[in-house]
Amino acid sequence: MPEVQKRGAFIVVEGLDRSGKSTQSTQLLEKLRSAGIDAKLLNFPDRTTTIGKMIDSYLRSESELDDRAIHLLFSANRWEAASSIESSLRAGTLILCDRYAFSGLAFSAAKGLPYTWCRAPDVGLPAPDLTLLLDVSPEQQAKRGGFGAERYEKAEMQERVRAVFERVGDEMGAGGRWVVVDADAEQDAVAYELWRHVEPLAQGTEEPIRRLWDEEEERRRVSELYL
C-alpha cells in the first residue's frame, strides 16, 4: 500500500475586533517555529496588494464603496492567495491565517446583506483544518487600545458580528474544526488554550485539502452526524 503523504495544516484565527487575534497569531507562529515547524503567517485583508490597498483605504474611512462591492473585494483578496496557500500546504508548510472568509461573511451579513449571498463568493476556497474563534466581551473590547479607530469598531456592529459568527460556528463545528476561545482571559491563558488545539496539527495532516462550503462535502458532513 502506498505511503500517505502528509501536508501542512491550515489553521485560521478569527474573532471580533480587539480580541487579540494578531498578537496571538504572531505568538503561535513563534512557538511553531521554535518547535522546528515550517510555518507561515498570512493576514487578511492583505493590504499590500492592489485590491488590498483599496480595502485599506475603505477601512480607514478614507473612501466609500457600496457594501456589495467591498464584500467582493475582500473575497477577491482571499482568492489572490488561494493558489499560494494550497502550494504551501502541499509542500508541508503549516499556514496560520489571521482572519479569513468567516470574517468577510460575518461583517457583511452584520451590515444586513443576505447571508447566503455573502457566503457565495468564497465557496471553493481552501478550507481550514481548524478555526479558532477568539470571543471577547464588549467591556474588554472598550478597554483595549485603539478600539474605534476603524470603520467597524462600534459596539452595536460587533454584537451583530458575534451573532453571525455563532451561526457560522453551528455550520462548521462538526469534528472540532471550529473552537471558541474566551479572549477575555489573560493573554498567557489564551495562548495556552490556542496551543492545546494547534499542537495536534503541528506535524501536519493526512487529510486532503477540503473546499470551503462545498455542497457535496456539506451533505456528507450532515449525514455523518446522524450515523
Automatic annotation (TrEMBL):
Pathway where this protein functions: Pyrimidine metabolism; dTTP biosynthesis
Alphabetical UniProt keywords: ATP-binding, Kinase, Nucleotide biosynthesis, Nucleotide-binding, Transferase
EC number in record: 2.7.4.9
Record-linked InterPro entries: P-loop_NTPase, Thymidylate_kin-like_dom, Thymidylate_kin_CS, Thymidylate_kinase
Thymidylate kinase-like domain sequence ranges: 13-190
Keyword Transcription included in the entry's annotation: no
Gene Ontology biological process terms in this record: dTDP biosynthetic process; dTTP biosynthetic process; dUDP biosynthetic process
An example Gene Ontology CC term for this record: cytosol
UniProt key word tRNA-binding: no
GO molecular function list: ATP binding; dTMP kinase activity; nucleoside diphosphate kinase activity
UniProt similarity note: Belongs to the thymidylate kinase family.
Record-linked PANTHER family: THYMIDYLATE KINASE
Name this protein carries in UniProt: Thymidylate kinase
